[in-house]
């Protein structure tokens, strides 16, 4: 894959911190895109129109390919040529690449990122809105964040874990005075992966427990956060005004485009493919296993590799899109009515 001449559309909403990562990535890489703004709670008819059942935000489309999950979206975007004035650096050494992957594991799989969700929800106005609470209870089934008393009970240990994360950055990578976490000339995906919840917490008044986490206690982390914020903001400003599409306009553009990627194969040596006896063209379901798991995409299996599963789904108007999900945190299984 080289540069994407197909339209790139980001489905997101203003206060979504995951979407911010994609937005920063696109801006830091100097890639122009269009956006389709979504409501903060379900339903999202603009995505249903494309035949997408996945409920999480962001979703990114390039041509008629639909990409799920921030991590997978950034991996796909990393295969595109950078635009003019790109500021993004790339991990090149084995240590940088390893650290970048471990940041992802630390942030998502160790539950560190979720601690910020807890601190922020505790202070957010949304918690007063019964519709929001109902929506997110369905979204995070089993997470135990609701009712609000549950957040209160978790709070001391959550604060301890977040403070521990600040200490980790202050006392290891940033301790030698470097600008960016991987010691590169500009920010990398590693900086994006670590910065988003910290900057999100700053935007919600009162979310950061100041007695334990402050600029005075962690000066290097706060300086890095500020550096990242201003560099990302400059990149966003330079990209210029984004074109905002309605759901109808976006769907028309997507369904009228070619595919961005050519068709892949089913890896017959894959352990899940063998176990599930998956075959090309078979009807399958595909869903995230951590949150939003009730929303399963259905379509014909196009390809399975060690990186992704791709299915072909039917849009409401009968047109076809290919939906791509990464392997980590997603499941695929034969569809039974
Ligand atoms: N692992 C997903 C998580 C995305 C996620 O949790 N996004 C939030 C918004 S920032 C979400 O979808 N919340 C429920 C909703 O908006 O319906 C990713 O990296 O994209």
UniProtKB/TrEMBL annotation:
GST N-terminal domain: residues covered: 10-84
Origin: domain of life: Eukaryota
Pfam families: DUF7962, GST_N_3
Domain called DUF7962: residue spans: 124-235
InterPro entries linked to this entry: DUF7962 (IPR058268), Glutathione-S-Trfase_C_sf (IPR036282), Glutathione_S-Trfase_N (IPR004045), Thioredoxin-like_sf (IPR036249)
SUPFAM superfamilies: GST C-terminal domain-like (SSF47616), Thioredoxin-like (SSF52833)
Descriptive protein name: Uncharacterized protein
Native source organism of the sequence: Hypocrea atroviridis (strain ATCC 20476 / IMI 206040) (Trichoderma atroviride)
Organism classification: Eukaryota, Fungi, Dikarya, Ascomycota, Pezizomycotina
